[in-house]
């Protein structure tokens, strides 16, 4: 049994009297989460703790768990219990006695743990974590008798398509990378357990930072791109050639990328446990995505990189060595920047309505505030 468990159950009765459920939460739940130490996971657990739920979090080591507890009050810390394990381990947990503790007690599982790699050479690891790992979490959930299983997938299981439906896609369709395919296979595996517990699939688009604080503990997607552009700014600032010349990034500026803030995604996930429908897929997407041109202009402004320019994909260029360097780094995003995808999010709208929440409205001002808070927090008054 993990260290905190006995204490946790002892405290359960006391805490029951101390906490008043908030945010319209009707019932305090016991929730098991994987991926809680990740970018999205951290945001979700801080929300669930504030709602008064008890959380069992799968963590790979003590250091990770200590990191999770940071910033929580003493009483909040008692709401989180570590379950040490790894999703690629067929039995999931290190200490099997935890099964007796969790048996028939878990209302909802949020399975978020995944390997987010677009690297072709990581195919084996990607499938091992995202498919076999998902199966291991499902088997464990079945063994301990959970009621609901919420799988966090990605809107990009749409693959190379341009219409994102709230339905399963064929796992044989064309995908941009193995990450997408592994998540699509993971979805299929999740729904194959529909007779064991309620299953739901939540599909966020590209997750960006918190709308209020800008905080984004990730190097994935937009943040990988920002890192690359920032690095190029540093490199070319020492190069006289760029004092009079633009630094060009070539992509289809009229397309859009579907960005969703992490706090919004966490809000949708949090209400899914109470208001979500079984065997339903939810696209957590932006109904009015900003164009890539707008996103790029805001990046240019907030990074204070005035000679950064978008080059048209129809133009004929000889890119400089430095420009080529950035394009090489951007190669994995090329597919995402070259087409717009129309996502249906009717199920998510219905879910939000049931929970009296509004659908996302990520306008230019909010995006700029978010990015500025991330890049130059000293310039932002919250
Ligand atoms: N970020 C996005 O833009 C985005 C967009 C759409 C969907 N999603 C989905 O959202 C979920 C969370 O993404 P994220 O951005 O928060 O990812 P992240 O920051 O990379 O976090 C990944 C999480 O998975 C855990 N994990 C990885 N391999 C594991 C293993 N073998 N055993 C146990 N835990 C393991 C990590 O644990 P450690 O801390 O120990 O490494 C971490 O908690 C994923 O399912 C992803 O597919 C993300």
From TrEMBL:
Q: Residue limits of the Thioester reductase (TE) domain?
A: 33-268
What Pfam families does UniProt report for this protein, alphabetically? Answer: NAD_binding_4
UniProt cross-references to SUPFAM superfamilies, sorted A to Z: NAD(P)-binding Rossmann-fold domains
One of this protein's GO BP terms?
A: long-chain fatty-acyl-CoA metabolic process
One term of GO molecular function = alcohol-forming very long-chain fatty acyl-CoA reductase activity
Q: Which Gene3D superfamilies does the protein's record reference? A: NAD(P)-binding Rossmann-like Domain (3.40.50.720)
PANTHER family in the record: FATTY ACYL-COA REDUCTASE CG8306-RELATED, MALE STERILITY PROTEIN 2-RELATED
- The protein, known as: Male sterility C-terminal domain
**In which organism is this protein found?**
Halalkalibacter wakoensis JCM 9140
Lineage of this protein's species? Bacteria, Bacillati, Bacillota, Bacilli, Bacillales
